[in-house]
Amino acid sequence: MVELYINGKAYRVNVEEETPLLWVIREHLGLTGTKFGCGKGICGACTVLVEDSPTRSCITPVKSLQKKRITTIEGIPSNHPVKVAWRELQVPQCGYCQPGQIVEAYALLKRNPKASKEEIVSVMSSHLCRCGTYGRILKAVQRAQK
Ligand code: FES
Protein backbone atom coordinates (compact mmCIF):
# COMPACT_ATOMS: atom_id res chain seq x y z
CA MET A 1 0.00 0.00 0.00
CA VAL A 2 1.37 3.41 -0.94
CA GLU A 3 0.07 6.85 -0.11
CA LEU A 4 0.31 9.41 -2.85
CA TYR A 5 -0.64 13.06 -2.95
CA ILE A 6 -1.63 13.96 -6.51
CA ASN A 7 -3.20 17.20 -7.76
CA GLY A 8 -4.13 18.17 -4.22
CA LYS A 9 -5.82 14.84 -3.37
CA ALA A 10 -4.56 12.03 -1.17
CA TYR A 11 -4.74 8.46 -2.53
CA ARG A 12 -4.01 5.09 -0.99
CA VAL A 13 -3.18 2.55 -3.66
CA ASN A 14 -2.60 -1.16 -3.22
CA VAL A 15 0.43 -1.76 -5.46
CA GLU A 16 3.96 -3.03 -5.15
CA GLU A 17 6.36 -0.29 -4.07
CA GLU A 18 8.44 -0.76 -7.21
CA THR A 19 5.48 -0.02 -9.50
CA PRO A 20 6.25 2.95 -11.74
CA LEU A 21 4.17 6.02 -10.98
CA LEU A 22 2.90 6.14 -14.57
CA TRP A 23 1.06 2.82 -14.14
CA VAL A 24 -0.54 3.98 -10.92
CA ILE A 25 -1.77 7.31 -12.21
CA ARG A 26 -3.12 5.87 -15.46
CA GLU A 27 -4.35 2.40 -14.50
CA HIS A 28 -5.32 2.78 -10.86
CA LEU A 29 -6.36 6.43 -10.65
CA GLY A 30 -7.68 6.96 -14.17
CA LEU A 31 -5.57 10.06 -14.78
CA THR A 32 -4.92 9.22 -18.42
CA GLY A 33 -3.62 12.61 -19.54
CA THR A 34 -0.08 11.43 -18.80
CA LYS A 35 1.11 9.23 -21.66
CA PHE A 36 3.25 6.15 -22.11
CA GLY A 37 5.85 6.57 -24.84
CA CYS A 38 9.19 4.80 -24.54
CA GLY A 39 8.93 3.48 -20.99
CA LYS A 40 12.66 4.14 -20.58
CA GLY A 41 12.85 7.74 -19.41
CA ILE A 42 13.85 9.06 -22.81
CA CYS A 43 10.88 10.59 -24.66
CA GLY A 44 9.24 12.73 -21.96
CA ALA A 45 5.63 11.77 -22.72
CA CYS A 46 5.12 10.57 -19.14
CA THR A 47 6.42 13.73 -17.43
CA VAL A 48 4.75 14.85 -14.20
CA LEU A 49 5.92 17.18 -11.47
CA VAL A 50 7.23 15.91 -8.17
CA GLU A 51 7.56 18.87 -5.82
CA ASP A 52 7.71 21.12 -8.92
CA SER A 53 10.49 19.11 -10.60
CA PRO A 54 9.71 17.50 -13.97
CA THR A 55 9.95 13.75 -13.45
CA ARG A 56 9.68 10.81 -15.84
CA SER A 57 6.91 8.81 -14.25
CA CYS A 58 7.61 5.66 -16.32
CA ILE A 59 10.86 5.04 -14.44
CA THR A 60 9.94 6.42 -11.02
CA PRO A 61 8.86 3.80 -8.48
CA VAL A 62 6.03 4.91 -6.25
CA LYS A 63 7.95 4.03 -3.09
CA SER A 64 10.11 7.11 -3.67
CA LEU A 65 7.10 9.39 -3.78
CA GLN A 66 5.27 8.86 -0.54
CA LYS A 67 4.31 12.19 1.07
CA LYS A 68 5.57 14.12 -1.95
CA ARG A 69 3.43 16.54 -3.94
CA ILE A 70 2.74 15.25 -7.45
CA THR A 71 1.13 17.27 -10.23
CA THR A 72 -0.09 15.75 -13.49
CA ILE A 73 -1.35 17.52 -16.61
CA GLU A 74 -4.85 17.40 -15.07
CA GLY A 75 -3.58 19.42 -12.10
CA ILE A 76 -2.56 22.42 -14.20
CA PRO A 77 -5.57 24.77 -14.51
CA SER A 78 -7.01 25.08 -18.03
CA ASN A 79 -6.74 28.87 -17.77
CA HIS A 80 -3.02 28.79 -16.95
CA PRO A 81 -1.07 30.90 -19.52
CA VAL A 82 0.80 27.84 -20.78
CA LYS A 83 -2.37 25.90 -21.57
CA VAL A 84 -4.01 29.02 -23.03
CA ALA A 85 -1.01 29.64 -25.32
CA TRP A 86 -1.01 25.98 -26.39
CA ARG A 87 -4.65 26.26 -27.43
CA GLU A 88 -4.33 29.68 -29.07
CA LEU A 89 -1.35 28.63 -31.18
CA GLN A 90 -2.82 25.17 -31.86
CA VAL A 91 0.46 23.56 -30.91
CA PRO A 92 -0.49 19.86 -30.99
CA GLN A 93 -0.56 17.84 -34.16
CA CYS A 94 -1.24 14.24 -33.10
CA GLY A 95 -1.08 15.51 -29.51
CA TYR A 96 0.40 12.45 -27.89
CA CYS A 97 3.53 14.07 -26.45
CA GLN A 98 1.86 17.36 -25.57
CA PRO A 99 0.86 16.69 -21.93
CA GLY A 100 4.50 16.03 -21.11
CA GLN A 101 5.57 19.09 -23.08
CA ILE A 102 3.05 21.30 -21.26
CA VAL A 103 4.09 19.99 -17.84
CA GLU A 104 7.75 20.71 -18.68
CA ALA A 105 6.93 24.23 -19.96
CA TYR A 106 4.81 24.95 -16.88
CA ALA A 107 7.69 23.95 -14.60
CA LEU A 108 10.20 25.95 -16.61
CA LEU A 109 8.20 29.17 -16.40
CA LYS A 110 7.51 28.64 -12.72
CA ARG A 111 11.26 28.32 -12.15
CA ASN A 112 12.25 31.09 -14.52
CA PRO A 113 9.42 33.25 -15.91
CA LYS A 114 11.95 35.17 -18.02
CA ALA A 115 13.67 32.15 -19.55
CA SER A 116 15.60 33.05 -22.70
CA LYS A 117 14.90 31.50 -26.09
CA GLU A 118 18.05 29.40 -25.70
CA GLU A 119 16.97 28.12 -22.30
CA ILE A 120 13.48 27.28 -23.55
CA VAL A 121 14.89 25.37 -26.53
CA SER A 122 17.40 23.59 -24.33
CA VAL A 123 14.86 22.51 -21.71
CA MET A 124 12.14 21.54 -24.18
CA SER A 125 14.58 19.55 -26.33
CA SER A 126 14.47 16.82 -23.71
CA HIS A 127 11.00 15.97 -25.09
CA LEU A 128 10.46 14.14 -28.36
CA CYS A 129 7.67 15.12 -30.75
CA ARG A 130 7.32 12.85 -33.76
CA CYS A 131 5.16 15.44 -35.54
CA GLY A 132 7.90 18.06 -35.18
CA THR A 133 5.86 20.77 -33.45
CA TYR A 134 8.99 22.26 -31.88
CA GLY A 135 8.57 25.67 -33.52
CA ARG A 136 5.04 26.07 -32.17
CA ILE A 137 6.13 24.81 -28.75
CA LEU A 138 8.76 27.56 -28.56
CA LYS A 139 6.25 30.20 -29.65
CA ALA A 140 3.71 29.00 -27.10
CA VAL A 141 6.18 29.11 -24.23
CA GLN A 142 7.18 32.63 -25.27
CA ARG A 143 3.54 33.71 -25.50
CA ALA A 144 2.89 32.32 -22.03
CA GLN A 145 5.71 34.52 -20.73
CA LYS A 146 3.86 37.72 -21.74
FE1 FES B 1 8.56 7.92 -19.87
FE2 FES B 1 9.14 8.00 -22.47
S1 FES B 1 7.40 7.12 -21.50
S2 FES B 1 10.14 9.00 -20.84
TrEMBL record:
Pfam families: Fer2, Fer2_2. CDD domains: fer2. Residues 1-76 form the 2Fe-2S ferredoxin-type domain. Keywords: 2Fe-2S, Iron, Iron-sulfur, Metal-binding, Oxidoreductase. InterPro entries: 2Fe-2S-bd (IPR002888), 2Fe-2S-bd_dom_sf (IPR036884), 2Fe-2S_ferredoxin-like_sf (IPR036010), 2Fe-2S_ferredoxin-type (IPR001041), 2Fe2S_fd_BS (IPR006058), Beta-grasp_dom_sf (IPR012675), Diverse_Oxidoreductases (IPR051452). The keyword Translocase does not apply. One of its GO terms (molecular function) is oxidoreductase activity. Coiled coil: none annotated. PROSITE patterns: 2FE2S_FER_1, 2FE2S_FER_2. It comes from the Bacteria. This is Membrane-bound aldehyde dehydrogenase small subunit.
